[in-house]
């Protein structure tokens, strides 16, 4: 899930960039932007960096095992071809 502080900071920056005439509405705008960002991001299937790195490591190990098995199969096929 997205960090609440990050959402607050992003909403504050966007609300702070509105024209001077609208800055009276800045606090309300900031709250609405935060709610909209949170709602939009909640519909996405996001993972934390830690979860991503764990899955990346699992995939890397799986790929290494697959390559080792492919090499082993190639060697066995070569032996069969030589003996056959």
What does this protein look like?
With 84 residues, the chain is mainly α. It folds into 2 domains: 1-46, no CATH class; 48-84. It has helices at 4-16, 26-42, 49-83. Belongs to the UbiK family. Required for efficient ubiquinone (coenzyme Q) biosynthesis. UbiK is probably an accessory factor of Ubi enzymes and facilitates ubiquinone biosynthesis by acting as an assembly factor, a targeting factor, or both. Pathway: Cofactor biosynthesis; ubiquinone biosynthesis. This is Ubiquinone biosynthesis accessory factor UbiK.
List the helices and strands and how they pair.
Elements: H1 4-16, H2 26-42, H3 49-83
Helix pairs in contact: 1-2
Brief overview, please?
Helix content is 77%, strand content 0%. It has 84 residues and is an all-alpha fold.
Give the uncertain stretches in residue-range form: none
What characterizes the major β-sheet?
A: none
- Along the chain, the helix and strand elements come as HHH
Q: Output the structural class.
A: mainly alpha
Number of helices: 3
Q: What is the general shape?
A: rod-shaped
Indicate the proportion of strand residues.
Answer: under 5%
Percent of residues in helices comes to over 70%
Which oligomeric state applies? single chain
What does the average pLDDT come to?
85
- Rg, Cα atoms, Å: 26 Å
Annotation, overall tally of beta strands: 0
Please indicate the count of domains. 2
End-to-end Cα distance: 58 Å
InterPro entries: UbiK
Family: Belongs to the UbiK family.
Pathway: Cofactor biosynthesis; ubiquinone biosynthesis
Subcellular location: Cytoplasm
